[in-house]
Amino acid sequence: MGEVLSQAGMQVDVVPMRQVQDLAPYGAAVLGTSIRMEKPLKEAVDFARRHRDALARMPVAVFSTGLFMREDTVENREKTRGFLAPLLELVANPVDVAFFAGKLDHGKLNFLLRFAAKHDKTGAMEEGDWRDWDAIRAWAGGLSARLL
Ligand SMILES: Cc1cc2nc3c(=O)[nH]c(=O)nc-3n(C[C@H](O)[C@H](O)[C@H](O)COP(=O)(O)O)c2cc1C
């Protein structure tokens, strides 16, 4: 996304949210979070709360990654929108909200989660990479005009 927006002529910093102290130098923001246990990351919600006023004064786009979106259905979009609610409630009028499929690497899970993933019979914790880079690039490409 950062590359695509740069190619569109924007000056872009890709930064972990907890490292951002001040949004004053920025004219727009793209906030992303994975979904864990049906919630956005705490880091993302804390960021949106901390910078709520600044975000309200600039164009903001929001995206999530999650495994529900392995299948892009109306039902899974609505579920994912619900998971994102704690973040979306803090962003007044996002220019766009996107739900992408993510990836799961069992090797990166802690012991308990790896155990849960191994014994999960629903397929919800199946290992794999479902990121659709064309869809991600296309979304970023369409965003630039709305962020300017
Ligand atoms: C502990 C855990 C809980 C998860 N819960 C959800 C969930 O509730 N809904 C969903 O769509 N995806 C869920 N996922 C899938 C992640 O959102 C997906 O793997 C994402 O790409 C992970 O990115 P991250 O490793 O940067 O957090 C979960 C993954 C993990 C490891």
Nutshell version of this structure?
This protein is of the alpha/beta class and 148 residues long.
Summarize this structure as a short list of keywords or feature phrases.
alpha/beta, Rossmann fold, four-stranded mixed β-sheet, two-stranded antiparallel ribbon, 40% helix, globular, binds flavin mononucleotide
Record the SSE blueprint.
Elements: H1 2-7, E1 29-36, E2 39-40, H2 42-50, H3 52-56, E3 60-66, H4 74-88, E4 96-101, E5 103-104, H5 111-119, E6 128-129, H6 133-147
Parallel strand pairs: 1-3, 3-4
Antiparallel strand pairs: 1-2, 5-6
Bound molecules: flavin mononucleotide.
The site of flavin mononucleotide has 15 residues, from strand 1, strand 3 and strand 5.
Q: Per CATH, which architecture?
A: 3-Layer(aba) Sandwich
Q: Which hetero compounds are present in the coordinates? A: flavin mononucleotide
Assembly type: single chain
Please give the largest β-sheet: 4 strands, mixed
- 3D shape: globular
Q: Enumerate the strands of the largest sheet in spatial order, edge to edge or round the barrel.
A: 2-1-3-4
Mean pLDDT reading = 95
Amino-to-carboxy terminus distance: 15 Å
Q: How many separate domains?
A: 1
Instruction: Spell the H/E element sequence.
Output: HEEHHEHEEHEH
Strand content: 15-25%
Summing up helix and strand content along with how strands pair, one would put the structural category as alpha/beta
Q: Radius of gyration from the CA trace?
A: 16 Å
The CATH first-level class comes to Alpha Beta
CATH-derived topology:
Rossmann fold
